[in-house]
Amino acid sequence: MLLRYNFRVYPTPGQQQSLARAFGCARVVFNDGLRARQDAGEAGLPYLSDGDLSKQVITEAKKTEGRAWLGEVSAVVLQQALADLNTAYRNFFNSLSGKRKGRKVAPPRFRSRKDNRQAIRFTANARFKVLDNGRLRLPKIGDLHVRWSRPLPSAPTSVTIIRDAAGRYFASFVVTTGQDETLPPTDSEVGIDLGLTHFAVLSDGTKIAAPRFLRRAARKLRRLQHDLSRKQKGSNNRKKAVVKVARAHARVADTRRDWQHKLSTTVIRDNQAVYVEDLAVAGLGRTRLAKSVHDAGWSQFTAMLEYKAARYGRTFGKVDRWFPSTRMCSECGAVSNKLDLSVRSWVCPCGATHDRDINAARNIRAAGRADLNDRGAQIRPGLVPAPRSEAVTHRKLTPSRA
């Protein structure tokens, strides 16, 4: 199983300049490759193969006066930039042909030096190394100081150096773990109903309050955003204000991620099987509840449950989003009329009194067990998420061809 471990790194001023040079070279190679393929397509020429593209924008480009500085960085960084471009094109073509599920993926776009996130990747061919003193040695950059929070389970196969919008640097290691991490079996199974009033309601009656990290930080964010809007565009003060806003948002995201990691680990450790509802988060994010939906972070939480279940030998499943978990009586199976959001409890004709959220969680658990298949429940097993790639692809609808 492939796992990704992120650690904070603290490069020196000289190493920051070397990283900035590597970010820029990788960006130029990516843009040159994208431009070469676009020009070939407009001229009616065949699609440039990966080998021909690498020879044109890296090997031959280094011999020219305008691109001679590409030799100042590791060649692996440049090759990985083209690998990201190839991945972006592959995702685009698979999306057009229907091989890629989900929403349509747009063709790759040009990278900008003003992008909030800059990243470069080193593979094993670059011969990066974690030294005995804990520093990370990268070719043509030097030994970076890493803040290790835990040891790596195995030797990393690649490392990605990331600079985020807040000016922080991270080292993201990809490791392959083959060891058995299966937790001791337990008889408990749980269904989870996600919501806004309570972040999660478990089928055993446990209610977990919504932390609302973004709402709690709204006052500070509003003040920082107001200060930013008063700065003159292009000034150094505006650049400093942008960093302050980015740091405040990063603090909110980090706090939410840490809280969800702890909660998901507890749920997976205490239950043999976990079932959740397949929510249409993208659709809910376009309603008047968009801010609260994005603040909750349901997709990130379910993704954590999914990969941790696969890692520790637990069962994870998603119940179809059209399954009437809220309106169905968990005692007799009768489906009532549509319930308004203000209705938090209701009484079934069979005499059972239900808490809206607890009843939904119990129905989700029962549907996950496939006990209600004869009543129309549709169970879709979750897939193990792949590590996030650094390819620049953007999801949006592709305009129809005339």
Radius of gyration: 25 Å
Could you estimate the helical fraction of the residues in percent? 25-40%
What is the makeup of the main sheet?
7 strands, antiparallel
Shape: elongated
Structural class assignment: alpha+beta
User: Which segments are poorly predicted (pLDDT under 50) over 5 or more consecutive residues?
Assistant: 371-402
Spatial order of strands in the largest sheet: 2-6-7-1-5-4-3
Number of helical elements: 10
Q: Tell me the span between the first and last alpha carbons.
A: 44 Å
Strand content: 15-25%
The residue-averaged pLDDT reads 87
SSE string, helices as H and strands as E: EHHHEEEEEEEEEHHHEHHHEEEHE
Number of separate strands: 15
Concise description?
With 402 residues, this protein is an alpha+beta fold. It has ten helices and 15 strands. Helix content is 38%, strand content 19%.
Sum up the structure in keywords.
seven-stranded antiparallel beta sheet, 19% strand, disordered C terminus
Characterization of this structure:
The chain is an alpha+beta fold. Helices cover 38% and strands 19% of the residues. The strands form 3 sheets. The chain has a 7-stranded antiparallel β-sheet with strand order 2-6-7-1-5-4-3. A hairpin with a 5-residue loop joins strand 6 and strand 7. Helix 1 packs across helix 3 and helix 5 packs antiparallel against helix 6. The longest helix is centred in the middle third of the chain and has 35 residues. The chain starts with a strand and ends in a 21-residue tail after the last strand.
